[in-house]
Design goal:
Layout: H1 2-15, H2 21-34, E1 40-44, H3 50-55, E2 61-66, H4 69-81, E3 87-91, E4 103-109, H5 118-127, E5 129-138, H6 147-158, H7 170-179, E6 182-188, E7 198-203
Parallel strand pairs: 1-2, 1-4, 2-3, 4-5
Antiparallel strand pairs: 5-7, 6-7
Helix pairs in contact: 1-4
Amino acid sequence: MATQFWDKIASKYAAQQIDDVPAYNETLDRVRALLSPDDTILEVGCGTGTTALILAEHVRLYTATDISEGMLGFARAKLAESPRANVSFIQSAADAKVSGAPFDGIIASSLLHLVPDLPKTLRVLHDQLRPGGLLITKTSCLAEMSPFVRVMIPLMRLFGKAPYVNFLSRETLGAAIEAAGFEVLEVRTFGTSRFIPFILARRK
């Protein structure tokens, strides 16, 4: 069902502008600082591939996955326009293992609040990292937003206008990451995104 939702909105999603450009650029700068030219990176929930193609310039191999073939169609079109031999786009759920593990880093941006089984997803990501490898996330913590959001999203789901959403707080998200075998190294926000923390964690 999630696949159908994202396939249906792929064209609209691809046409959207980034809401907070300064926050996006600050996030990219922070992630770039964590990467090295020899790294192999997995990005889960890559969407239409914009971030993957930017960050791939700074690593050896970059594998990007998404549950939606509709989204990946746009990602592969971008790759065809600006070919990079070190990038691959693969259809896969966030809680499925992909070839290439263990990775030096895993990026999950705007994703963890959308997975139906967060503990399972985090365990799978943990198992695909080398010891000491980094998990880099940026996640909407909807439990900290206004009550209006918490009322509207379930209503939108009833009419097929929103996907499954887990109403996480910063505390519950951090606890879930630690329970999956990670050490949280950094929690911060960028731009005006007060409810979308950037979390850096390391596999123990």
